[in-house]
Amino acid sequence: MASPVISFRVEEHLVAQLDQLAAATDRDRQYHLKRALTRYLETEAWHVAAVAEGIADAKAGNLTDLELVKADWAERAKNRVDQ
Question: Is position 1 within any domain?
Fold first, then answer.
């Protein structure tokens, strides 16, 4: 089965950097673009899932008091300065 083709425009300096990377690693542009796209999509999928989980927690009433969070971060900052 043939893979679909995706085409898009990109700045020349990015193409130059991609070509330098391809030459340095003895790999073609396609290899690096696929790898970059895979990593990006994995990261974004994780982020979307984390947001959905947070929304579900909030809807279920699993919330933390903002003042407690602020106090915790203020204490952490104080301890960091004191060290």
Answer: no
